[in-house]
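Hi C.,

You asked whether I'd gotten around to modeling the 337-residue construct. I have! Everything is below, sequence then structure, no commentary in between.
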Amino acid sequence: MKVVIPGGSGHLGGILARSFEREGHQVVLVGRRSWDGLPAELAGADVVINLAGRSVNCRYNARNRREIMDSRVDSTRAIGEAIARSVWPPRIWLQMSTATIYAHRFDAPNDENGIIGGDPWRFSVEVAQAWERAVDEAETPLTRKVKLRSAIVMSPEAGGAFDMLLRLVRRGLGGSAGDGRQYVSWIHYRDFVRSIQWIIDREALSGAINIAAPDPLPNAEFMTALRAAWGIRFGLPAPRWLLEAGAFALRTETELVLKSRRVIPGVLLESGFTFEHPTWPEAARDLCTRWRAIRRELDAERREHDRPKLSRLPGRHSDRDHLGRTHAASERPNLSR
């Protein structure tokens, strides 16, 4: 199977690419600089997964708003046009969308028939709607289209959302954000990959599909479970005024942590999909275990890389006998600190 992933150079693209490659599939990552070659890359493709779009982790000034909107809508239209012109179009087009399209609410969860928009953060909802509208307007009669309304994908790899949240916990700052009532929707990265494969394999699935675990929970409970998984009881809470100040200093928006995203995967569950990690406390424990394993491996690689350098430092040379055995092992530096 040939899988083409526009915008696949980021965090999610890497997770998907490695998974497909392990299964023996051909993966083609398409970046912005090779956008003109998209029609050629689509030739013979079975699956297209579009992840392209400027990061929303920024201040929503006029320039950034324009780039966020245009990067999503323009790339989606370009893919639709390339598929429409293809002699052998892909059988499925998976288009990234976002669970942020749903209303900020506390009373009930949103499945695929949930309330769209209607909250203080109108810009993000408008972007999501324009994004999905570009998919719907594309004329691709031979290609099944799926809009992936994804929650936050939790992965132990550096640079992801989980890595950032765990950094707060490890520094004693992992308390509730604001009043802690806002719901957090999430999905374990393994279930994210499995859900993508599940959708590809089932011809009956199309349209908007929520990619989220069935256990969204309030921010305060979410962070409590993460601290417990790491083994820390206390986390300093962040009141709203502090979040506003921090967001301004870090050039980002408080919406990313204050909007209540209470989303459930109605279509996935109805189609028979089962989650490996359906609840957050268990998923958080698994992710913490994987995070530690990755860091141990990286530390071991760093020690191995630094060893030749250390052997050349003054005072670090050890006497060796004719068999090459080291007599001064006790003088070696402790590199595990």
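If it helps when you're writing up: The chain has eleven helices and ten strands.

Thanks,
B.
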